[in-house]
Design brief:
TIM Barrel; 3-stranded parallel β-sheet; 11% strand
């Protein structure tokens, strides 16, 4: 496709106006986002979003070789949206000891991982020293391993339980060895929806505030958005506006990650049992076009299915996620994908989409 004159390739009149803005490096509006989230002209939408991906990343598609570490499923919040969390007395509740964590990481390191991705429940007995020791032990096993750890929700909780500020919490974890933060806990910022799906979770304004602090301290993060539950396109557009606004101020978001909600074993019934392919394409392509100031767009193949994630590589996605050995959270909610993908598997999917697989970590250091 000739991208030299992007607007000339787009036939839909409203999308052509959006293409003119994108080609001229003019941020699109919330009204534009609402149209893109509802259009059926996904091929024209794809031309615009793919133009941005190619401009930013050429023919590269990134992937990682990592492990998931979900250290506990015990959580004070017990959000209706979550199938993973448990009360402390439940028969399948667990908390990994630091020795068990070390053993799991040692095993994964022997298999060749570059990164550990850490999230867990809000356990009422754990304070900041547990997490500092966890990170130090992992770094001792493999000093150059990259650690992506703890959502804004977790950081806020650690600070509260340890009676210290968010800034002090982040400083101690950075000193211990974390390299970046995941974007979980954002869910959807609209208060009326958040009060249904996660009423006890920190509000969206607090999530943004904690991320702002992380960015000001030099810690780069992901941002996420959960969709296919109780939201409408207005809620999605509003979420994107708030993410872009903070990014304009801090520049600290490295990756945006839309997350497809799975409702099995949760207290929420999804608007559809599975989203349609058109839904996924509209949300990812719109995210790529609207969030012009965030360099990467990630599709989690475990959430979407490998074939849908592969398609999205041509609709703005440049990050195909990672191997994620032993993922627990989305599989507790009924995801049908395996809980691990080999490097060969990920590379083949990227190559079959006509792109070049590039192995990296969450900070996009090329391996």
């Amino acid at each position: 496709m000739n991208f030299m004159n992007l607007p000339d390739t787009v036939t839909n009149k409203k999308l052509k106006k959006i293409a003119v803005k994108v080609f001229g490096e003019i941020p699109v509006s919330k009204t534009d986002a609402l149209y893109m989230l509802s259009t059926n002209d996904i091929l024209d939408l794809g031309k615009i979003s793919n133009f941005i991906r190619v401009k930013l990343h050429g023919d590269a598609a990134y992937y990682g070789v990592n492990m998931n570490l979900n250290f506990t499923n015990i959580c004070e919040l017990r959000c209706p949206l979550c199938a993973f969390s448990r009360d402390e007395g439940d028969k399948d509740a667990y908390l990994l000891s630091l020795d068990e964590i070390s053993r799991r990481v040692e095993t994964a390191v022997l298999s060749g991982i570059d990164e550990v991705h850490i999230v867990g429940g809000l356990h009422p007995e754990l304070k900041i020293d547990y997490f500092e020791e966890m990170i130090r032990r992992i770094k001792k096993i493999k000093p150059d391993i990259f650690i992506v750890a703890f959502t804004a929700v977790e950081i806020g909780y650690f600070a509260k339980k340890s009676k210290i500020t968010v800034k002090e919490t982040l400083k101690r974890l950075i000193d211990a060895g974390i390299g970046a933060m995941p974007g979980g806990g954002a869910e959807i910022f609209s208060p009326h929806v958040r009060n249904i799906i996660a009423p006890a979770k920190i509000p969206g304004s607090r999530w943004l505030q904690i991320m702002r602090t992380a960015h000001e301290m030099g810690l780069r993060t992901n941002a996420t958005m959960l969709y296919n539950h109780k939201e409408d396109i207005g809620d999605i557009a509003d979420h994107l506006v708030k993410i872009r606004r903070l990014q304009d101020e801090t520049g600290g978001f490295k990756t945006f990650v839309p997350l497809l909600f799975h409702d099995t074993n949760t207290g929420i019934r999804a608007r559809r049992k599975t989203s349609t392919g058109y839904d996924d394409i509209r949300i990812y392509a719109t995210s790529r076009i609207f969030l012009h100031n965030i360099p990467h767009l990630k599709a989690l193949w475990m959430y979407l299915g490998d074939k849908m994630a592969q398609v999205l590589l041509r609709f703005g996605v440049d990050d195909f996620a990672a191997t994620y050995y032993n993922e627990k959270v989305v599989h507790a909610a009924g995801a049908k994908t395996p809980d691990y993908g080999s490097e060969t598997f990920l590379k083949r999917l990227i190559e079959n989409a006509g792109l070049k697989p590039v192995r990296t970590t969450a900070n996009y250091w090329i391996k």
